[in-house]
Amino acid sequence: MTKAVPMKLPDDFQWVEATPDDDWSGARLDLDGHPVLEVSACRGGWLVVVLLDDPRQPQANVAVRSVPAGMRWSARWALARTDRLRALAARRNAPGPAAGQARPSPLPSPMPRPLPYAREEEPLDA
Questions:
Q1: At a CB cut-off of 8 Å and minimum separation 6, what does 35 contact?
Q2: If exposure means fewest CB atoms within 10 Å of the residue's CB, which of 1, 9, 32, 126 is most exposed?
């Protein structure tokens, strides 16, 4: 089996591969120091786990047959979402809101939130 290299990613993405001295195995894709996803051992195979979650488009874990296969899948996935991943990483770098201010919701709310249900007690006739 040949070891195909993953697709070329922009310069702000870096692959970090585990060495034999590390306590983990596999590879991790970082974006400006933020872990985006990881190819890690899972039972007898390998699993791609997305670490930089996008609340608009959640991504399930993906099983792959090897670390190079996981790196290839991950590179295609990251290239398709480069701008969104950069925005999510920038949001992590942004300073938090000042004390006393509410943090904005990451999801747009097209409808107003429903009011909590208030049940009125009715007297029981005995």
A1: 28, 29, 51, 52
A2: 126
Tokens of 123: 């007297």
Could you tell me the residue ranges of all domains in the chain? 29-51+58-93
One-character DSSP codes across 52-116: S--TTS----EEESSHHHHHHHHHHHHHHTHHHHHHHHHHHHSPPPPTTPPPPPSS--SSPPPPP
Residue for token pair 């090897």: 66
How many CA atoms lie less than 13 Å away from 2 in the CB half-sphere?
A: 4
pLDDT-above-70 percentage for the chain: 69
Q: Which two tokens stand for residue 53?
A: 């979650």
User: Can you give the pLDDT at residue 111?
Assistant: 53
Biggest alpha carbon distance in the chain? 82
